[in-house]
């Protein structure tokens, strides 16, 4: 079988993915400052979602005064469930979420559209920072942005996690994976029209969930950086964290002259959107590694057909022919197994197909991303992949937790230096921001800073700088 690697490696148009209606609106709200049409569509979208959940139950208390007890009850329940989980693991029980390393990477990939707009639902309130009733919410938003520190900005941390796990760019995702992120963006661009719903969403979303604790524990166990998740365990705490401030924000903003019960009802309905779209446990449960292998190969077939010589035949059909239609991929994989190129449930070295993808003489070296290789690797190994082994030796002891590997790297002098926040950065927007700040009056300066703190760019050098300045000045 002869495969010309450079042919397979032809770049695939990024537009192949993310062309569904939700993904497209998501990008119009987060790729650049949205125009009026995008904003109007966002409002209509989120109103439709609010109508959809209007009749579904909520566990929020009937009266806002009971929020403190509700939050404490939730925190205690989660703590007890997590203690039970840890006990089970100590007794030798298997991981609850991630069957293997590919499963965990899949999770990080499909939740990316949500994590990359983390905090965005609160953006609309930042412009109203002078109203002290919103101070808890503005502060929560600024903390999501890491107060402008690049190593604390949640979105930037997730971007780095994707890059270090070989998961960027995130493309070819089902439209459904954009729903939760789209809701967050839509709320963020309509903080004024949807004030009670934003406050309710924040209340529902900022309570510490059990899945966050288990995710962090199991990512670390699999050697993947859990920091983004452990950070949220500490920021969502019920003592001083976002969970408590979310409750306080409701009490602070409830109308004293206006219709407080109507407002509370809208808060309650908004909170239900925190569970809209595909939830964490659902996407973890529905992972099907064979389906993911088919998706990966179908996508490659777009570029790969025509790249193989015609004398290279599997089950009487040329590889070019197999790859001519993405729909033939499941049959092709079946044929590769029949022909002895793939031995499922055996070490990968026994599969000649694996030897084409990975190793010194691999003819398709570089065709698949590290994520894709991990999926194929774990699929071939089957049950044995539960040991969490990376597809290639990454220079750390097998099965070391992320934290243990990090300690070891530090000891060996291999750890990356901590980024120096003071180092001047080259960024066109940074210059533009500084130029504009120089000529504007104080009020207009604050407006500009707020604009630069939007979900579109708060994680860029200019956005981070704007966040630092905003935070300093708004508290002066
Ligand atoms: Fe966050």
UniProtKB/TrEMBL annotation:
Pfam families: Haem_oxygenas_2 (PF14518). InterPro entries: Haem_Oase-like_multi-hlx (IPR016084). It comes from the Bacteria. This is Iron-containing redox enzyme family protein.
